[in-house]
Amino acid sequence: MIYGMGIDLTEIDRVFKIQARLPKFAQRVLTEKERAVYQKLTQRRAAEFLAGRFSAKEAYSKAYGTGLGTQIGFQDIEILDEPSGKPVVRKQPFTGIAHVSISHTSQFVMTQVILEQEG
């Protein structure tokens, strides 16, 4: 049974500019394991990765029904890729299943999260 669905659209260059202006932005958005991946990427791919995780966590918070803030924050959600490249929610406050999709063009990243209750 679907508990919630959230989508988000984020401009990659906007996130890149925020990170350039506020170097701790990536640390705020990404978990330690996500940062380990981020730090190995080229500048352009790192911008896409950071924007994708930012957007996916926004979409997750919408599906959860609270938005980001007092109930859940960026560090409460961790999204890592399987060897195939498929993003998977590895850490979350929701007790069910979280499905995530991340897609981007050269300008935008679009994400969708569906939270599914088991049973």
Terminal CA distance reads: 7 Å
What is the correct CATH architecture? Alpha-Beta Complex
CATH class: Alpha Beta
Strand content: 25-35%
Radius of gyration: 14 Å
The biggest sheet amounts to: 3 strands, antiparallel
**N to C succession of SSEs:** EHHHHEEEE
CATH-defined superfamily: 4'-phosphopantetheinyl transferase domain
The overall pLDDT, averaged over residues, is: 95
Q: Which shape, going by the Cα principal axes?
A: globular
Widest beta sheet: strand line-up:
1-5-4
CATH topology annotation: Ribosomal Protein L22, Chain A
How many strands? 5
Low-confidence sequence ranges? none
Q: How many helical stretches?
A: 4
Judged by helices, strands and strand pairing, the structural class is alpha+beta
Catalytic activity: apo-[ACP] + CoA = holo-[ACP] + adenosine 3',5'-bisphosphate + H(+)
Domain 4'-phosphopantetheinyl transferase: 4-103
Subcellular location: Cytoplasm
Organism: Pediococcus cellicola
Characterise this structure:
With 119 residues, the protein is of the alpha+beta class. The chain has a single domain (2-116), classed as Alpha-Beta Complex (Ribosomal Protein L22, Chain A), CATH 3.90.470.20. It is 37% helix and 30% strand. The chain is built from four helices and five strands. The strands form two sheets. Strands 1-5-4 form a three-stranded antiparallel sheet. It has a two-stranded antiparallel sheet with strand order 2-3. A hairpin with a 3-residue loop joins strand 4 (97-104) and strand 5 (108-116). Helix 1 (12-21) crosses helix 4 (43-64). The protein starts with a strand and ends with a strand. The model has no long low-confidence stretch (mean pLDDT 95).
